[in-house]
Design goal:
It is built from eight helices and six strands, in the order αβββαααβαβαααβ. It has 193 residues and is an alpha/beta fold. Helix 6 crosses helix 8. It is globular, with a radius of gyration of 16 Å. The protein starts with 5 loop residues before the first helix and ends in a 7-residue tail after the last strand.
């Protein structure tokens, strides 16, 4: 067993995503939402330009904020303020690069694809393009839902029902605080890297 650093985890996530998604020489922002940490990698198909692991995973956020059912506006604001504070290094880096595409790495992003498709689609291929209009519609619906409503949502697997609200909040924060106009999803990640 080898324990790896957050930086090494981010590097392996990049390699996994590069295997699945047809990247070009333009810079992409790769985002991997985990339980304990979220990894962000700015990279092209040939080079990693910047990478960082933030202790902002959804299990950690659940424990810290204990969101209500459904989440309240006060808690939403507190979480967004936490992101703004903790993600300053990323926000600074995003200003340096002309990034058009957020590439979501497996996990919660597969749920995004499945929920938009209303069926289990994310296992069919290794990469997807998601229309941001469709993304924001399902994000808004999910964030303001109750746990009972999420249990009835097509495409949302049981293990993600408690954490998906925080996943969507994480993705929304990135999309709302950048010039990103495209969303891609890779079903490959750390394991494949």
């Amino acid at each position: 067993i080898e324990i790896i650093t957050g930086a090494k985890e981010a590097e392996l996530i990049y390699y996994g995503n590069r295997l699945a998604f047809k990247m070009t020489e333009e810079p992409y922002l790769i985002m991997d939402i985990g339980g304990g940490s979220n990894e962000f990698i700015i990279a092209s198909n040939s080079i990693i330009l910047w990478k960082h692991s933030f202790k902002l995973g959804v299990a950690r956020l659940l424990d810290k904020f204990k969101p209500e059912n459904p989440i309240t506006e006060k808690t939403l604001q507190a979480i967004n303020q936490h992101f703004k504070t903790e993600l300053q290094p990323l926000l600074t880096e995003l200003k340096k690069y002309n990034i058009n595409t957020l590439l979501g790495s497996s996990g919660a992003f597969e749920s995004v694809v499945d929920m938009i498709g209303k069926e289990k689609t994310s296992s069919a291929k290794s990469a997807y393009h998601v229309d941001l209009k469709d993304y924001f519609a399902i994000s808004k619906k999910t964030i303001h839902s109750t746990k009972e409503e999420r249990e009835a949502m097509p495409g949302l697997i049981p293990m993600r029902r408690d954490m998906i609200v925080l996943s969507y909040l994480s993705i929304d924060f990135i999309l709302n605080n950048s010039n990103i106009s495209k969303l891609g999803v890779s079903t490959y990640s750390l394991k494949e890297g």
